[in-house]
């Protein structure tokens, strides 16, 4: 069954698409980070006390719904009633905005994407979290725990919210045979010159790096977010070549849907929720996870190092990943939930199948957005990797 989302509900993803006291912590989930990052020596909270009466959140649109956008969509009101914590939310349009807002010290927590999380950790604006204070964390999919974008050397810095993959979408009538490789938008992009589309963000450099990782093994790329200068230059050059075939770079999901409906775009990157919406509106499209794998995203709820309302923040963390609430958010926003028990709570019983929520083999081929830093997160110590600021500079040059 296709997702049958109202335009108001679908608009929840719009903002995201514009982008871009001592205690124990769990360290026995998945593999430890080897980022080489040396964050300030901050400790996770050891226990919960009396809630402070409010919590100030920074969030993507669609993550903190209180019924004001749609009376039928409200998972905040019950939280406020049960905890006594009034929720105050600042909706952010980009990861850069989230980082800036966290630096003000006015907020307790943020739903950070992987292209922001390490920046918050390195700067000391986000503190480690004590996952033992979040009971529902036990049911989070193992593949989301203790990863490079939400942990440092086995220390968790956040609570996973959900995840999604950046897929290859194509017009089934104009792109034949059906593509199964990113070559459709790189080496073979000239076949659809002027009708190729790509995600408008510096993090898209990782998509090029992922393709090169599979097609040019001599470059030695092991992680698309850990690129030394030679590897980085190769990715930039590939995107400059691609640029000649790009019709438009998309950041507004409505424009991408419109372009595929009109035929102005016939192949390019997308998200599963966008493909579903495009199909619902009559576009002849399909979306696939190419054989090289894909980049993707997993958002993380992080607590501010100087949070004024930490106990309410921890209560929010446990609430937002509880099975029923996590299911509501996942369906409304259009993503795979982070809590394994949420799949039994979705209104659309096919939701988790559509978004591959329980298919860990699928997610092993997804490289989640991770902030590029000088310390190579692939474990290399003999070279420096190109940090995110230079990705931004290169992206502006690629687009011209």
From TrEMBL:
Annotated signal sequence range: 1-21
Predominant location: periplasm
Keyword Phosphoprotein: no
InterPro entries membership: SBP, Sperm_putr-bd
GO CC terms, sorted: periplasmic space
Keywords: Periplasm, Signal, Transport
Location of this chain's protein in the cell: Periplasm
Gene Ontology molecular function, alphabetical: polyamine binding
Domain of life: Bacteria
GO biological process: polyamine transport
PROSITE patterns in the record: PROKAR_LIPOPROTEIN (PS51257)
Region of interest (Disordered), ranges: 28-48
Pfam families: SBP_bac_8 (PF13416)
Record's keyword annotation contains Transport: yes
The name this protein goes by in its record: ABC transporter substrate-binding protein
Species per Swiss-Prot/TrEMBL record: Streptomyces himalayensis subsp. himalayensis
């Amino acid at each position: 069954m296709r997702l049958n989302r109202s335009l108001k509900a679908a608009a929840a993803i719009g903002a995201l698409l514009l982008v871009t006291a001592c205690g124990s912590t769990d360290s026995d989930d998945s593999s430890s980070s080897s980022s080489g990052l040396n964050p300030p020596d901050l400790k996770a909270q050891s226990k919960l006390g009396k809630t402070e009466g409010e919590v100030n959140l920074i969030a993507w649109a669609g993550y903190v719904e209180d019924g004001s956008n749609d009376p039928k969509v409200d998972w905040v009101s019950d939280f406020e009633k049960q905890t006594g914590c009034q929720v105050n939310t600042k909706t952010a349009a980009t990861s850069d905005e989230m980082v800036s807002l966290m630096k003000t010290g006015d907020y307790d927590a943020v739903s950070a994407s992987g292209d922001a999380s390490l920046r918050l950790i390195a700067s000391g604006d986000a503190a480690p979290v004590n996952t033992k204070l979040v009971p529902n964390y036990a049911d989070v999919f193992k593949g989301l725990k203790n990863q490079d974008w939400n942990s440092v050397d086995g220390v968790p810095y956040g609570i996973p919210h959900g995840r999604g993959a950046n897929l290859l979408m194509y017009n089934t009538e104009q792109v034949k045979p059906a593509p199964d490789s990113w070559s459709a938008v790189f080496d073979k992009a000239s076949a659809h010159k002027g009708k190729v589309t790509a995600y408008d963000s510096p993090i898209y450099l990782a998509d090029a790096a992922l393709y090169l990782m599979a097609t040019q093994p001599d470059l030695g790329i092991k992680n698309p977010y850990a690129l030394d200068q030679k590897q980085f230059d190769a990715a930039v050059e590939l995107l400059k070549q691609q640029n000649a075939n790009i019709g438009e770079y998309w950041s507004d999901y409505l424009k991408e849907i419109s372009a595929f409906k009109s035929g102005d775009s016939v192949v390019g990157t997308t998200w599963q929720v966008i493909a579903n919406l495009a199909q619902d509106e009559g576009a002849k499209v399909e979306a696939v996870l190419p054989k090289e794998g894909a980049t993707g995203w997993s958002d993380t709820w992080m607590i501010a190092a100087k949070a004024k309302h930490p106990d309410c923040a921890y209560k929010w963390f446990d609430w937002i990943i509880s099975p029923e609430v996590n299911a509501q958010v996942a369906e409304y926003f259009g993503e795979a939930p982070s809590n394994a028990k949420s799949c039994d709570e979705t209104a659309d019983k096919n939701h988790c199948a559509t978004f591959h929520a329980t298919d860990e083999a699928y997610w092993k081929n997804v490289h989640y957005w991770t902030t590029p830093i000088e310390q190579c997160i692939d474990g290399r110590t003999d070279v420096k990797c190109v940090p995110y600021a230079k990705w931004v500079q290169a992206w502006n040059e690629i687009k011209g």
